[in-house]
Prior knowledge:
The protein is α/β, with parallel strands linked by helices. The chain has helices at about 50-60, 100-115, 115-120, 145-160, 175-185, 200-205, and strands spanning about 5-15, 15-25, 30-35, 40-45, 70-75, 80-85, 100, 125-130, 140-145, 165-170, 190-195, 210-215, 220-225, 230.
Amino acid sequence: MKEPRVLIRCLRVSGRSRNLVAERVAVEHQIDIYVNGTLERSLVCSPGSDELLIRGHLLSEGLISTNAEVLDIRRSNDQYHVQLSGTSDIDRDSPSALAVRPSDIMKTVHDMMENQEHHKVTGAFHAAILRELGTEKSFSCEDISRHCVVDKVIGYGAVNDFDLSRSLLITSGRLTSSIVSKAVRCHIPILGSLTVATERGVLLAKTNNLTLVGALTRADYWLYHEGSTRIVTSER
């Protein structure tokens, strides 16, 4: 198994001085996903948790509606061959009607940032965390790809019986339409980020009644849309 980061030799330049140093850099890892014999996607990601990534990708891209549809995953080098019981579109019911406190959101952000071991060393990794609201269940990870890191936490949630319709997803990357659509397809009712949303991301959240929150490193975060999940700001 490859490591997510390696040491390389490089020159650190400061003014007129040049010093040869050892620097930690992120590793790129490509996997090819074949579904029922056909190449579905090639992904560039960080090594590790490949099967979680594949399961999360299949769910978040609408190729399956439940993890149970994955009958088998077999690896051959960096190729993964997935057998599905059948393909289906995600049922687009409205997200669950929930209430969440800002303190719960910020605690989730804190937990995600505390676990950014590789990013603290290299500055090259995105992070994501999935937390099932009302329980102690959560999972965070890192990846060089903002899409793959979201898929990995979704895959973990699917394998470990998280109720995605009652879960909070936080990521470090931009809330583009491609990221928002992953939450929509998986029935995740509230999505947030350390950074900001795009116009199409906000429009997609509004269309699907998804609560969308950005700039979560600040006290005055952006509430782009408050969907069926309400943020209770009158905390006592």
